[in-house]
Design brief:
Blueprint lengths: L2 E6 L5 H11 L6 E7 L5 E7 L2 H10 L7 E7 L14 E3 L3 E9 L2 H10 L11 H12 L4 H10 L3 E9 L6 E6 L4 E4 L4 E4 L11 E4 L5 E4 L4 E4 L10 E3 L15 H7 L1 H9 L17 H7 L2 E6 L1 H16 L4 E5 H4 L10 E7 L5 H13 L3 E6 L5 H5 L2 E4 L12 H20 L4 H12 L1 H9 L2 H8 L7 E6 L4 H15 L2 E6 L16 E6 L5 H13 L3 E7 L10 E6 L7 H20 L17
The chain binds 2-deoxy-2-amino glucitol-6-phosphate.
Length: 610
């Protein structure tokens, strides 16, 4: 979603803002802009629809935009299309400029009131009401900070803001409610940003703002207060991210890089969490034992790919005797709950900033769910800060909008979780030791699965002119089929649907003809016999099958059936391994289709609005 960067320096901030915007690109956006207080004390603003290159062209064509205080923004359109007029920063009275990530829910009411008060609007956005509110309060005698406080007090919704006033160069005011915002602290430079990755070329020291914080920064000072002006104490953190960890290296796309990092990411997620025979329960936090001992059921909450990881975990947990429900976070929010006793909420999120997931965890607390565990990839995220128990996935920064290594590491983390919960339901030492041994082999098995790439590349050619595809899976591999279909639709724009193979005859079989590619995963498990039957049903109707099959299944290619053998693996890790070829297929189809793989249209990396 939208990205914010602001900087105050003794030198020109333009390069800092542009570098920050580039580093925020991964969040997803469709226009961008910046505003800088020029040396002569005037406010200059440039904006452009489309990719950052368009903003750079606009800057090159301008008379120049330089100064020591500025704010910049990548906008992911919500209210109004991605036009120049709707791009941020929004300006009022040529003096106040503001960038916002979030949604002002009562913007219509505020806009009507502001229009009655004589304020002009130049965009269709909800954000413009905030900058006009601030100006109105200043016109009526409030100082800059008071005007910000008065304006924020009138807002409903979630937002992160960065605001400059041309009459006060060297000062930026920021505010956070709901959407993420951090302050970066450098040497004679201070920054505001949506996340630390935007600042990593300049500093690793940062402060995470909490909901309700208002921050006032200058070149050497950071002051945090609440809406009523009471000082707020926030810790300084140091990021472990290195500027290189977000570099593309020799890869064509971040998605390609991240797919190939999955062996290492799995290994990093296991590191320090297992011995030769056991999962170390302490990795879930000091309170884990007490909470797990009294947990009788699990409720998993997540969105998108993270939801698919949750679906896989349900099979693992229930197989070990632990009742488990999985729900899409936004749906969980939409109804009342009959809360099971001693139920642990497990929230899964790569970013830890997905608003639906955050809200669903808060709602679960309100409803009376006992405790919460976050499985997350972003250590400084809201989810991690708000959860009682935390297990970090160590995927490293994931830049491609389509989640790959985050999914695989979520599955690794969930496997660890299933084992420690399984102990409470009778998993004995010998069984645990076997499962841990299988997990240890996972990184090497992932590397082997990646070797299928050239075979998959050839298969991807068959999708060059396709608009639709079906994905089939059974049992624990149905969520893997769902994930494969999501990957394909996200980055290649091929309409892909996944079905449990047993559902085929209940409707989707009507779609099968010689034009319809049908992708299936066929591990060597108890479902194989039935799956073979489903494969024949598709073949009999002329459907073109592509089956990723465990080499022990003895499935072989014949008319309308292409089999790609995946080296045989233990069933406990098979869903992770069968994910890899589906990711590679989506990647190579998108490559052939020539889409913007890392930043697919209309999507954002971190969905911070409802
Ligand atoms: C994955 O490819 C998607 N981009 C998306 O479904 C994502 O998984 C979802 O938005 C949840 O994000 P989170 O894991 O950061 O909460």
């Amino acid at each position: 979603m939208c990205g914010i960067i602001g900087a105050i320096s003794k030198a020109d901030v333009l390069p800092i803002l542009l570098d920050g915007l580039k580093r925020l690109e991964y969040r997803g956006y469709d226009s961008s802009g910046l505003a800088i207080i020029q040396e002569k004390g005037s406010l200059s603003r440039l904006r452009a629809p489309g990719k950052l290159i368009e903003l750079e062209r606009t800057i090159d064509a301008s008379e120049g935009i330089h100064g020591r205080t500025g704010i910049a923004h990548t906008r992911w359109a919500t209210h109004g299309p991605p036009t120049e007029n709707n791009a941020h920063p929004h300006v009022s009275g040529e003096r106040i400029a503001l960038v916002c990530n979030g949604i002002v829910e009562n913007h219509e009411e505020l806009r009507n009131w502001l229009v009655d008060e004589g304020m002009d609007f130049h965009s269709e956005t909800d954000t413009e009401v905030i900058v006009n509110l601030i100006r109105l309060h200043m016109d009526r005698g409030s100082d800059f900070m008071s005007a910000v406080r008065e304006s924020i007090g009138a807002l409903k919704g979630a937002y992160a803001l960065g605001i400059v006033n041309a009459d006060e160069p060297g000062r930026i005011i920021g505010a956070r409610r709901g959407s993420p915002l951090i302050v970066g602290v450098g040497k004679d430079e201070t920054y505001l940003a949506s996340d630390i990755s935007a600042l990593i070329a300049h500093t690793r020291d940062f402060i995470v703002l909490e909901n309700g914080d208002i921050v006032d920064i200058d070149q050497n000072r950071v002051t945090i207060t609440d809406l009523d002006g009471r000082p707020q104490d926030r810790d300084m953190r140091t990021s472990t991210l290195s500027p290189r960890s977000t570099e593309l290296g020799n890869h064509r796309h971040y998605m390609e890089k991240e797919i190939h990092e999955q062996g290492q990411a799995a290994s990093d997620t296991l590191e320090g969490r297992i011995t030769a025979r056991r999962v170390l329960e302490a990795c879930f936090g000091t309170e884990a034992k007490r909470i797990f001992d009294k947990t009788r059921a699990i409720q998993i909450l997540a969105c998108g790919t993270s939801y698919h990881a949750g679906l896989v975990a349900r099979y693992w947990l229930e197989d070990l005797g632990i009742p488990c429900q999985v729900e899409i976070a936004s749906e969980f929010l939409s109804r009342k709950h009959a809360v099971p006793r001693d139920c642990l909420v497990v929230a899964l999120s790569q970013s830890g900033e997905t608003i639906d997931t955050l809200s669903s965890v808060a709602y679960a607390k309100e409803c009376g769910y006992a405790h919460s565990l976050a499985i997350c990839n972003a250590p400084d995220s809201s989810l991690v800060r708000d959860s009682e128990l935390v297990l970090m996935t160590h995927a490293g920064p994931e830049i491609g909008v389509a989640s790959t290594k985050a999914f695989v590491t979520q599955l690794v983390a969930l496997r660890l979780f299933a084992i420690v919960m399984g102990r409470r339901a009778g998993l004995d030492m010998a069984e645990e030791s076997k499962l841990v041994r299988e997990l240890r082999e996972l990184p090497a098995r992932i590397e082997s699965a990646l070797e299928l790439e050239s075979a998959i590349q050839a298969i991807a050619e068959q999708f060059a002119n396709k608009q639709h595809a079906l994905f089939l899976g059974r049992g624990i591999h149905y969520p893997i089929a769902l994930e494969g279909a999501l990957k394909l639709k996200e980055i290649s724009y091929v309409h892909a649907e996944a079905y449990p193979a047993g559902e085929l005859k209940h409707g989707p079989l009507a779609l099968v003809d010689s034009e319809m590619p049908v992708v299936s995963v066929a591990p060597n498990d108890m479902q194989l016999g039935k799956l073979k039957g489903n494969i024949e049903e598709v073949r009999a109707r002329g459907g073109k099958l592509i089956v990723f099959a465990d080499s022990d299944t003895r499935l072989s290619s014949r008319e309308n059936l292409q089999v790609i053998n995946v080296a045989s693996v233990e069933s406990s890790i098979a869903p992770i391994i069968f994910t890899i070829p589906l990711q590679l297929l989506a990647y190579h189809v998108a490559l052939i289709k020539g889409t913007d793989i890392d930043k697919p249209r209309n999507l954002a990396k971190s969905v911070t609005v409802e």
